[in-house]
Amino acid sequence: MSAEIKKPYFSVKDIHAYYGESYIVQGVSFDVEEGEIVALLGRNGAGKTSTLRALARLDSPALKRGEIYLGGLPIHPLQAYQAAGAGIQLVPEDRRIFGGLTVEENLILAQVAEPKGWEIERIYEHFPRLGERRNQDAVTMSGGEQQMLAVARALARDVKLLLLDEPYEGLAPVIVQEIERILMEVRKLGITTVIVEQNAVAALQLADKALILDMGQIAFRGTAKEVLEDEDLRHEYLAI
Ligand SMILES: Nc1ncnc2c1ncn2[C@@H]1O[C@H](COP(=O)(O)OP(=O)(O)OP(=O)(O)O)[C@@H](O)[C@H]1O
Ligand SMILES: [Mg+2]
Question: Which of these ranges, 185-189, 192-196, 217-221, has the smallest mean pLDDT?
Fold first, then answer.
């Protein structure tokens, strides 16, 4: 019998990232298995957004050291558009929905770049609200509907790793539940997700694993359940 060591699907090894001279992401490492949801938590300014941006290979912050692999493919040498082509989709906090374009035009635009993901009709089957609003100017939709569109747009682009920055921000609890339902469906499809959230409890209820960032370094790694059950940890790093 050969003892094959299974490599993690998404692997982040000792990444360091800077805004100019400011040293922000200070040696972050973690592994995620395919289809897992990881909650990346921590106080304001801990470096969560910066970490997601470095993983999506945006220019800023500049990744100066470290390695990133997705399905064995090295991501660290890539530029943002190439990382997107490899299946890494960042949904930023402001969601970047295009105004003046309808819901459907936003989805069509996402499909311009190769490789394509889901067909538009399939997206509407999973997001009936978007189907109902296909001809509506996308920025006139509610915050929750815009968040759905942001996730749907990632699916239209053949997402393999979904990076979500505060997807629940500004949303009513009932809409948060709807986004959660969508993210659980996304997990069933085998898509791997990293979710950054101020609403740590909501993120932990969804997540398999948890990471807590503090001053650009990982202060805790474990299961989501461990964080939910550890009051001291929550007080120290999450203020909940
Ligand atoms: N463009 C930038 N230029 C310089 N410093 C920045 C820039 N963006 C963020 N920073 C700094 O990097 C640190 C980490 O910021 P980051 O936005 O990653 O934190 P965060 O954990 O996402 O916080 P929040 O919960 O408030 O969104 C902060 O000290 C912030 O001031
Ligand atoms: Mg942030």
Answer: 185-189
Cα-to-centroid distance, 213 and ligand 2 (Å): 11
Average pLDDT score over residue span 68-72? 97
Q: Which secondary structure element, helix H or strand E, spans residue 69, and what is its range?
A: strand 62-70
- Picking from 35, 172, 165, 183, the residue whose alpha carbon sits closest to that of residue 90 is 165
Give a yes or no: residue 21 inside a domain.
Answer: yes
The pLDDT value recorded for residue 152 is: 95
* Nearest-ligand number for the alpha carbon of 48: 1
* Position 64 in a domain: yes
The CA 45 to ligand 1 mean position distance, Å, reads 5
Quick one: what percent of the chain has pLDDT higher than 90? 90
Q: Is residue 120 situated within a structural domain? A: no
| Residue 44 placed within a domain | yes
Which range of residues forms the domain containing residue 26?
A: 10-96+152-238
The predicted pLDDT at position 166 comes to 96
Closest protein CA for atom 7 of ligand 1: 19
Query: Residue 89: how many CA atoms within 13 Å on its side-chain side?
Result: 26
Q: Is the pLDDT of residue 176 over 70?
A: yes
22 lines ligand 1 (CB under 6 A): yes
**Which residue, judged by its Cα, is nearest atom 31 of ligand 1?**
45
Rg (CA), the chain: 18
**What are the phi and psi torsion angles at 236 (to 5°)?**
-70, -40
Give the CATH number of the domain where residue 221 resides.
3.40.50.300
The alpha carbon of 227 and the centre of ligand 1 are apart by a number of angstroms equal to: 23
For the chain, what is the domain count?
A: 1
